[in-house]
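Hi R.,

Here are the chain sequences for the assembly we discussed:
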Amino acid sequence: MGSGLLSVGITGLSVAQLGLNTTGHNISNANTAGYSRQRVDQTTNIPMFTNVGSLGQGARVETIRRSYDQFLAQQINMSQAASGELDAYYAQIVRVDNMLSDPGSGLSPVLQDFFKSVQTAAANPSLLSARQSALSSAQSLVSRFQGMDQHLTELYDGINGDIQNTTTEINAIAERIGKLNGEIVRVRAGNGNAPNDLLDQRDQLLNDLNKLVGVSNSEDNQGAFNIFLGSGQPLVLGFQVSQMETIPSSDDPDRLTIRLKSPSGSDQTLPEDYVKGGSLAGMLKFRRESLDTAANALGQIAAGMALTFNAQHALGQDLDGASQINSTTKAFQGVFFQVPNPKVISEPGNSSTSAIPTVRFKVDGDPTTGNFSTDLRASDYRIEVVADNTFRVTRLSDGADLGSVAGGTAIDGLVISDPTYDAANSVPASLSVGDSFTIQPTREIARGLGINPTIAADTRKMAIAAPVLAGSDTKNIGNMKVSAGTVGEGYAAALPAASLSPLSIKYDGTAAGLTFLNSDGTDFVPAGISLVATYSDGSTASITSTTGIPLTTPTTRVLPPTQGGATLAKIGFVNESSGKNALVVDVTGAPMAGDKFTVAPNTAGVSDNRNALKLAQLQSQGTIGPAAGGRATLQTTYASLVSDIGSKTNAAQVTGDAQRAMLQQNQDTRDSLSAVNLDEEGANLIKYQQAYQASAKVLNIGSSLFDTLLAIMN
Amino acid sequence: MRVSTSQIYSSGTRTMSRNQYDTYKTQNQLSTGKRILAAADDPVAAAQAIVTSQQKEVNSHHAANQNTAKDQLALVENRLGSVTDVLQEVMSRMVEAGNGTYTDTDYRTLATTLQQRYDELLGLANSADAEGNYLFAGYSGTQQPFVASNGKLVYAGDDGARRLQVDADRFMEVAASGNDVFMRIPQSNGTFAAATTNLGTGMVDVASTISPTDRHTYAIRFNDTGVTPPDTAAKTYDIVDISANPGIDLADPATDVSSLIVPPAGRVYTSGEKISFGGVQTTITGAPSVTAATWDYFTITPATNKDVFTTLNDVITALNKGAGSDDTSKKALQDALKSGSADLSQAFNKVLDVRTSVGSRLSELESLSSATSARDLQYEESLSNLQEVDYIKGISDLTRQKMVLDAAQKSFVQISGLSLFDHL
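And here is the predicted structure of the full complex:
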């Protein structure tokens, strides 16, 4: 009986000791991430059945159990993946947002400065210091574009590096989970007890993994985890671990993308949108949705600004009187900004890697009636060769199929053509049918923008004047006045050759109207140019380059000064192939017999600022984007970029906050169940200490009972 | 609900960090004065601010251009004012000369004075702006506009007039072409000249002559129809269109011009009576002569343009020649002074026209400039509404956030200080 008491007391002692031990373990791991507090499951020993009833045999510990809820862990993993994605996205996009918003790094101030200096140059056309200041602000503008592009390039490079680091980390975690899977299965098979600390470690690794990339997991019947990427590709299957690798993208070798290599050695390239959740998905999504947009839009603004400015600049005349008219004798610099060509990438699998289509920018618009503009969008394109010199074009920003486009036809401000194909001369195409290419029209424009070095070295070369000047003869009696004239593309063809210049427009009262004569008195018949008179009521009269032979049928070679009561308002020299004005002279008033007007090169026009006025106007005119609905100005295009990135940043911030709050909530729920409370453990310490002391007392009493018996026997 | 120790710490640090971020942000807004620190704070307002700031900037370009235009136009106005003064003086001197009391010496003295005025006028026409560009040379700013060529003054500039953008849709000319101011001056009327072969005392009233509308050259040829010898005073005349044959010898009675006569032929002449045809109106006074060998005639050349320098030069030449002693030369001087005065007053009117136009542009600039500065204020205000912090709200936010942060910190210290182990 006494020995029974002793053995019962010993069970109590050992249970209390295990309790103290577990409490100590809990206290030690109070700050261990992912640790679930453990409890001893205490129960009674099997009693001894006697004739007086069942006699208790003390206590024993059934198992040591962790406070854990599978569902809560799952919840945390999911919100961890979502939060990790948004955090990574936000961390990146906020840098773009700050760059665009900061007046010190944004585009807005330098763009305004540039156009302001063009206005100043327009006010002082012959002042070299005004030209120099225009050039300096053009240089600041170019360096700002380059600086912003540099920043974006750093983000691209940073993302490549981050993707590499993240995959390395993912591989390390997957490796450890694979190892833990092995150990857990082994321990379970050994004694059937749950290896609590190993399970906690694996759960914590899964949590860490979800921060990097969203995964789903399932437990097999042996207790091993199978882990799949968001779209179902296995990352860990029991002890088998796949490797995540980075490879250059087929669309753009400059960017890294992800490939999964299974233990059996087979590769699978993961499309970017297969990666769901975690910082990896956040970075890929940021690059795909925001960084590309920002880089393309910045390039779109740079290209739009430079191309339209160049087109107008080419129609000017510099301080030395050089222009397109006399470019054979005087060096004229039409190009102000150097603009790189669109980037074309040959896709893997093409029959030839060296042959690529020629892609050029196209500028629209007519400066005589409005301004130059471009149809350019902030998008990449995929083209496929469907026939010789014919391409199927897909716009990637909105996935629009632009259909089959014949080479040389403008589409979205681009002209795509086979580099060699010439059907008329039987030159075959270089591109094979079925080959496809990625075009990044604007991605690298901001980076490659420059200023024509000849102009940079000599500001006299800035074309501030207009090359043509119309004027009235000193002897004119009538009150007809002609404007100085506005030139458009190909204006040189609308003027007589230098030896026959200037062109005279004469009004002989006896004839039916105005006659156009070369300086030697011969009829002016410009090749491919129609002379079109527009009247105050909008009606027109025209002479094409082929109608009317000089002098034999004079009535067809004159433009009447009035038509149906309406007076002459405008004389246009229209390019017959493009339908655009090469030169326009506005007219007011009525001529009298003998009046004469001249249209001549403006080589002495050092005080002329007409071209600079046109250049300065590009600031507030719609120059970029689809013509439908009106093109946007440079500044509004930039503003919509800023607001686009701003809204995305704001959304990432708001949803990120919400996701973080949800994660926090889940974490709280889990912590409330699983994490250690030191006060509670302190109470448990006291509890087990007292149980230990009481059990010791039981032993003590058992022993003293035995001593009493021994004393009696003595 | 059970609370774990880590929850107490993590929630404590979380709330403190959030409160700290709030105060940091408010402090940042207050110290920069900006509500929007990055576009993400208010993407729509940030975009609007960019567009508005460009509008404001463009508006200020216009303001700057208005000032440049004002300076430029004021300079032009100043020079034109001097030109007006010179012309006015010349005209008043010529009126004095026309009263018939002058001797040839007086005429020559006057010629010398006018020559000085001529030089002064030329100087004004060739004046340059502060950058050394000629003011009245059109676009050819470095080309001296009025230069002598073969003894004649020609205009070497062009018709260009520099414009500046002074408002969104207003491009204002800030120069006047010398061609317009000094050269392209319509003569008061057509030239009505007595043929050099004339023998009679017929005189044309220059001031009342009006140019033919068809711009043909006509002759009024007196003939001997109805003349009774030896009375050589003409009684009838024909009007002959000689534009197709300007060299024709009309003084010779043998020349047959019947096909060129503007009907009716043989008009009856009365001294001082109005002669009118095809837009021409004039009167001839005195007695034109017709002899067997010579018929008097007068030619009417349509009005053309005559530059102010030629006009002045012609007057000076005539004055230098003087009145002479015979009636013909006296009459020639009177005619020259008469038509010279008329042409000068045309030139004067032309300058006045240009001055008026410059003046109205200057006053337009005044009103544009006040509109521009009003707009600037508007843009400034909307920019401030879009971007700037509301200090009252900002400061009250900061005070509240400070209080909350303070409470979070104090309560955290108190809660985390509670531990059962302190009592064991």
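Residues 548-555 of chain A have pLDDT under 50 and may be disordered. The two ends of chain A are 20 Å apart (CA to CA).

Let me know if anything looks off.

Best,
T.
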